[in-house]
């Protein structure tokens, strides 16, 4: 069977790598892919927003399954597009339709869903330009820090943690009046700040049954010790030591089960991954957000821990048999370190030749993101460039291997965080 993966990051490379190990997969295509996915999969040079072209490709290449990596294609309705076509509706699309994707596409919609179904989350209120004055009053009486969020998709940049009332007013003005995020900021969610430690929990679901995937923790800030600007992700670790059986039972009972019941009550069909961004507040899970896809760079850490055949897992989704699917998980720890271009997440230079890949230890996985081949040379072509993942019996061992690989691969001004997992190591040592 032929599969088409939509996206061009290390997440999609990891999914392609895993799917191509399945005896049921003949060809794995990635649209548009990157230099890494062109290595042993086939790239289709198609814009992910061009559904017509993607559909044509799916017909021409006898695609039976489409796995959607990024959220924007889902929010724009790629699943609906396939579902509504006579020629495409037999294709299993892994990723929800527009209605389900709203859980990520609108923070206000998502928060209302939490409220309606009693899912633990930060207290909030939503405002628009018309209720600007009410928002100012609300912020005057709010505790600090306060969190302001652009309602729509803002490529991970639409969340502002305001330390003071003045900072909150500046953020409010930027969002609602100066339209810093365009239409995505036409509504603003203001919510209470949750103090705790984050964990990313993933399920694959048909809206009724689900399979719990390994959890992970990602590291978003550019600087060591979580300092500096937010990025698309600098590294990840899986499993997460504090997400033990007792904590995960609370996640199932208080979050996952009410979420699936809520989807059914609200008549929202859902076929795909659900990424539950959680804050562990004194041992209790609170949902920060839902994403309607896998996380990046979490995927690069969790996929290598899945021993089961990914294609078979997707087939169980298609056949509504997830409830009886036994997912086999590697008990070892995976650590992912992202190599980025110097200057990222602000300005950086592209086109530098990447060297050292051939010297990476053979048991380390290398997933490409912003890479390209020009004149037979591998160059950096984005901010986040390559993710390396290593498995180890302990977190320390996995991190040592991943850091060694990160040091081995280089180009002018490449940067990576040497302290991925630092907070989990501290917890373990009881410091
Ligand atoms: P989001 O775009 O919703 O994932 O938010 C980005 C990041 O902001 C999250 O990963 C958290 O680190 C942080 N964040 C979002 N909401 C809250 C909150 N209510 N309390 C504390 N931190 C938050
Ligand atoms: N790692 C966070 C995300 O994928 O949104």
Keywords:
binds glycine, alpha+beta, single chain, five-stranded parallel beta sheet, binds adenosine monophosphate, 431 residues, 21 strands, Rossmann fold, six-stranded antiparallel beta sheet, Dna Ligase, domain 1, globular
Q: Let me know the average pLDDT.
A: 95
Based on CA inertia axes, which overall geometry fits?
globular
Gyration radius from CA atoms, angstroms = 21 Å
In the CATH hierarchy, what is the architecture of the domain at 2-102 at level 2? 3-Layer(aba) Sandwich
- CATH fold title of the domain at 2-102: Rossmann fold
Strand portion? 25-35%
Q: Structural class per helix/strand content?
A: alpha+beta
Number of helical regions: 14
Give the structure's gist in a few sentences:
The chain has 431 residues and is an alpha+beta fold.
Structure description:
By secondary structure, the protein is an alpha+beta fold. Among the domains are: 2-102, Rossmann fold; 123-192, Dna Ligase, domain 1. 30% of the residues lie in helices and 29% in strands. α6 packs across α7 (107-116). The longest helix is centred in the middle third of the chain and has 21 residues, at 245-265. The protein is globular and about 60 Å long.
Write the layout of secondary structure elements.
Elements: E1 2-7, H1 10-19, E2 28-32, H2 37-40, E3 42-43, H3 51-60, E4 63-68, H4 71-75, H5 78-83, E5 92-94, H6 98-105, H7 107-116, E6 124-128, H8 132-140, E7 146-150, E8 159-162, H9 165-177, E9 187-192, E10 197-205, E11 210-212, E12 217-223, E13 227-238, H10 245-265, E14 272-281, E15 284-291, H11 298-302, H12 310-318, E16 333-341, E17 365-368, E18 371-374, E19 377-380, E20 384-392, H13 395-408, E21 414-415, H14 422-428
Parallel strand pairs: 1-2, 1-4, 2-3, 4-5
Antiparallel strand pairs: 6-9, 7-8, 7-9, 10-11, 10-14, 12-13, 13-16, 14-15, 16-20, 16-21, 17-20, 18-19
Helix pairs in contact: 6-7, 8-9
The structure holds adenosine monophosphate and glycine (GLY).
Residues 122, 147, 156, 159, 191, 193-194, 198, 277, 288-289 line the site of adenosine monophosphate.
